[in-house]
Amino acid sequence: MGRIDTRVWLIVIAAGLFVCLAYVPAIIREGDLGFAVSDVFLYEAMINGLLLGGVLALLSLGLNLIFGVVDVVWICYAEIVMLGMYGIYYLHSFYGVPLLIAMPAGILLTAIIGYAVHELVIRHLLDSAPINQLLATGGLLFFFQSVATLAFGIDFRNLGVSLGSFPLTEDIYISWSRLAAFIVAAACVAGLYLFLTRTFMGTAIRAISQDREIMTLMGAAQGRLYLISSAIGGGLAGLAACLLVLQYDVHPFVGLSFGPITFMICVLGGLGNMVGGFIAAFILSELIALGGYHFDLEWGYVFAFAFFIAMMFVRPEGIMGRRS
Amino acid sequence: MKFGTIARGLAAGAAALAFAVSAQAADKTIKIGVIYDYTGPLAGGGSELQARGAKIMIDYINAQGGVEGYKIEPIYADAQSKPDVAINEAVRLIEQENVDMLLGFYSSAQCVPVAARVEQLKKFMWITTCISPAVLRDRNLKYVFRPQVHGGMFGTSSTDFLAAYSKEKLGIEPSDLKVAIIHEDGPYGSGVAAGNEVGSKQQGFEIVLKEGYATTAPDLSSLVTKLKRARPDVILHTGYNPDISLFLRQAQEQGLRFRALIGHGAGYGVPDKLYEALGDAANYIFNVDPVAIWLLDPASLAPGLGDVTEMVGREYAKAVGTPDMDPKRISAHVGMAASNAHVFFTDVLPRAIRDHGGISADALRAAALETDIPVGGTLLGFGVKFPEPGGAMDGQNTEAFPVVVQYVDRDIKVAWPKALQTIDPVLPLPDSSPYAK
Known about the structure:
The structure holds 2 protein chains of 2 kinds. Chain A is an all-alpha fold. Chain A contains 13 helices and 2 strands. Chain A has one domain. In chain A, strands 1-2 form a two-stranded antiparallel ribbon. Chain B has a 7-stranded mixed sheet, sandwiched between helices. Chain B has a 5-stranded parallel sheet with strand order 2-1-3-4-5. In chain B, strands 11-12 form a two-stranded antiparallel sheet. Chain B is about 45% helix and about 15% strand. The N and C termini of chain B lie far apart (about 50 Å). Chain B is globular. By secondary structure, chain B is α/β, with parallel strands linked by helices. Chains A and B meet through helix 3, helix 7, helix 11, helix 12 and helix 13 of A and helix 2, strand 7, helix 7, helix 8 and helix 9 of B.
């Protein structure tokens, strides 16, 4: 009961902060409430934040799933996204495969990578100290970057495909690829939720995430469930890659732009909690967008990181996390 | 012409002298640590192209028999796009490989700390590429020299160009011209942006926005929104590669409109990548950079330099596996490093050996301070002269200048200065551009 209250309070405080951050700087700058409220570009910034949130939510989803089930943080998650981007890029730009086929193939590729990462590396470390697991996936991060550098070179690649945008009003345009990321992220959260709560497999995954030893004693095939979760997590990285490849250059280090913030979102939401991660993605992205709109761009990140640090004091288990 | 005769005489004399001493000094070597980025984000942003240019020149000089009896022994090192690695590699090359000097450096973020460290170790450093004024400004470094244009000159070139055409082409008095300055927030972007600001103030432009951002920022939409709100006529942008294509893509998707966009080197210096990412939306973008050496008329250069330019293009085309490539499409990066290395090997190094007793840091410094190459005396077209020590910019070539090029239908045209123009600049953006106002 008490926990729910804290969450409600948190949401109220976050909403209050959001309104303050949105309007107060403009009121101070212009000295005019009317202007602040009717500033069309402020609303564009809010929408930017919402759409960025979709991208970040999608990125954090797979990482969260894997952590929630296997209890290992894949530091190299953004690098798997990078490999997926390369897969799609090469299939489409090099071999002329239509995007509608290249993208599912990219998802399949990352699902296989996710499967392989678990089978070849994580499986052997399940009983090791968490720091060793972190070091191993951290090592994989450099391994993937180096493999990509060797295999694809250091050139920046670009698919050269843009989905364009559509006008919402005279001044505000919405990017189709960002909107797609937003919708896909929302659909994936809903889909994963249904999968985990309504299917036998999902129930088994949830059960094993609660207690690895006991569930194994009860006859659940721990190894198989872990592999399935890792493959789904990897596939979600591929899904994110489909949408990122429409927006960003592909290069071996593209993961550096997303890795840290994706990890932060998962921690802020409560590691392993997908709904929490979803909410956290939007909180951080709005802080980034509004902070960046009112002040220098970098301030957006300052606000986001400051909020993150403050939350780690107030609620170290994350917004929706379980107290352990 | 007079210069040509002198140069030829000098060259002949040098060759004779080299021949005379080579019998006893055939095994003399100058070990040079060559540092660029072969991995990491900067590699694809131009650093690897620079490295190729430098290597082509070193191989060429060695194939010519070296310099004054010295064979050049390059030791190539990878700075991995990281300042800390650049420092470590510089120190390793000096202390463990015992190199006589360092050459190269693409990133200003590496140059600033490396220059200070190399100076402490009393070694000579010849910078071919990085442009931030902060590398040299007010530091009075004794052993660090840069024939390259510096960032402040980049920044003011674009404003000079705009001032000349604002009224004629845009129909806007310079005092009414609204410019926005956006830049990556490292020493390179900040240095150029500071030049943009100084130039804009000199010309009386109104600066409606000036802002930096991190090259790894995953999102620049708030910046685009602010630009839409500020409504600049012209955007002056300095960035590396991934951030430029992200910015231009988000700008296009969010409906940002302007009359002209001027980039300042690095990512903007690789038009192939701009076209790959943006298609024809990359048309009519301007870029400030030292000129791609193949765009210059060989007749405007000292005799013999045209052949060297051609050789660099040929070797580059061979090295990348497309021997029949049109050299006019080769990135400016390749020629920049080649030209700036060429100055060292044909001017500074021979004089140090001949007149100052060898290849010590002090001999190289003394020789560099005597360098006086007139306009047309380098592959890049500009002259080379270093200021009297004790000023604000010790070690900076005062005679260098960049040009403004424009990308038109995948060709690179020189738009400024007027003397080198190969196109009447297309201004404002024509309606065919998605960014046109």
